[in-house]
Amino acid sequence: MRILRLAVTVAAIALGGKGALAHEFWIDPDAFVVAPGAVVAADLRVGEEFRGNAQAYLTRNFDRFEIRTGGEVRPVEGRLGDIPALSVAGLPEGLAVVVHQTRALPLTWSEWERFLSFAEHKDLGDVTAMQAARGLDQVDVRETYIRYAKSLVAVGEGAGQDARVGLRTELVALTNPYTDDLSGGMAVQLWLDDAVRADAQVELFDEAPDGSVTITLHRTDADGIARLPVTPGHRYMVDAVALEPVEPAAATDPEWRTLWANLTFAVPG
Description:
Elements: E1 2-5, E2 24-29, E3 33-34, E4 40-48, E5 51-55, E6 62-69, E7 72-75, E8 86-88, E9 94-102, E10 105-109, H1 112-121, H2 127-133, E11 141-155, E12 169-173, E13 186-192, E14 195-196, E15 201-207, E16 213-219, E17 225-228, E18 235-245, E19 256-266
Parallel strand pairs: 3-11, 11-19
Antiparallel strand pairs: 1-16, 2-4, 4-5, 4-8, 6-7, 6-9, 9-11, 10-11, 12-13, 13-14, 13-17, 15-16, 15-18, 18-19
Organism: Roseicyclus persicicus
Protein name: DUF4198 domain-containing protein
Signal peptide: 1-22
């Protein structure tokens, strides 16, 4: 484990074609624990260091948006432009898992050093060697990225268990943060294309009640599992990124694709 920052402030982010150095996408519930029958509301956020702008409900931006609870899958429906993007009532008591998959979005890195720093931060491998091996230059590196986000919300006591939902890359909570013993940490398992990702970097964002955020790096074991230290009363985001090559057919086509797995939850105080 390596601590990157002990506290962060709101960071400016670029959401357009030139992109931020690292820009997470996550589901941010108003409350991670709600009473049975109460409204479950959540923003979709893009930002850095657990701070970001709320995104509107826009069907053109996502391929999946659903809530899984009580063995039932409910599509999230809303009006175009709604903020928060999720607002639903009448969920049964238990663990509700919100799932969101964005459509592929383009990004151009005009500065190689920024792409290199991003790849190093997210532990994506030796991109300099990979770029050279593919015969690609370091000018205007083109990427496409897809976000695969989940969030755990307790309705009532929140009993239940997270499971795989068929995302290309996915973080699965093996521990229920609302009902299980967390003295041994919060166990999550990282998947990519129906296989666990062993020895992969997992980034943990820990928000304390005073708003300060601690960011630590962890690695999965041979079974793709990371056990993350958690504290009662804190909110958490877990993030992991995979990089895969894309063969460009035209000069403006992407050269790389990044796949972002994200999971948010809280630990009751």
